[in-house]
Amino acid sequence: MPENLLKGKVGIITGALDENSIAWKTALKVKEQGGKFVLTNAPIAMRMGAIKELAEECNTIVIPADATVLDDIEKLYTEAKEFLGGDFDFLLHSIGMSPNIRKGRSYGDLNYDWAMKSYDVSAISFHKMMQVAEKMDIMKKWGSIVGLSYIAAQQVYPFYTDMADAKALLESIARGYGYRLGKLKNVRVNTISQSPTKTTAGTGIGGFDSFFNFAEKMSPLGNASAEACADYIVTMFSDLTRMVTMQNLFHDGGYSHTGISEEIMDQFKDL
Q: What is the assigned CATH class of domain 10-266?
C-alpha cells in the first residue's frame, strides 16, 4: 500500500475492544498511513477491553461514549474536534451487539426488548452518529464514513438471528444517509461486508468455527483477515475512493459470489 494515504486526515474510530478486533487493527493502519484519530467505545465495553493500551500506542485519547445516546455523541464530537484540531475526515462505525445471541435465544423465540436493543446498538446508532454529525456540521467535504456489515443482511444464516435484521437496517441507513450527506457535502457513506472473522464478537456466535471453516473452503481467496479488512477501510478513508458511496462492499475473498466450491463438492462425492 502507498505510504501516507491519510496524511493530514483526522477522524473517529469506534469499537476497538482488543487486538483481535477490526477496529483495533484499523487504528494501527490509520496511524501507519499518517492519520490522526480519537478512539471511543461504550463505557461497559471499555471495562472489558484494552483500548487504553491502543490509545497509548497510537498517541491518542479515548473518549467514552454510548453511541445510542445523542448527548454522548455530541460530547464525543466536541471533545474529539478539540483534540484533533478540526472537523473530521473519517468515521468508523464498528459497533454490534445482540443480547438474544448472547443468551441463546433462537430467531423464533426472540425477546423483543432485546431485539430492539440489538437494532439500536448495531444499526440505529449509525444513523444517530451521522445525524449528529450533520447537525453539528462536523464532517469535512469529501469525508468518508464506513460501517461494518455482514452477508447475513442479504442471505439467511440461521445462527445470526436478529443481527441479520440489524445489518440489513445498517446497510439501508448507509444508502439513505449516503445520499443525504453526498448532496450536502460530498461525504460518502459505505458499508463493508467482511468474511467471518475471529474477533471477540464473532467467536461468540454459536457454530462460528464450523462456519469459518466452511467459508474458508468456499472462498477462492480464502477468508479475509481482520488486518486485510483494516487495509480496505484505510483505502475507503483515502482520496482514492472519492466517488464510491452508498455501497455495500463485499470483502470476503469471493465468498459472496461463489455458488459452490470444488472442495465442498468433494465432501459429498461418496454420499
A: alpha beta
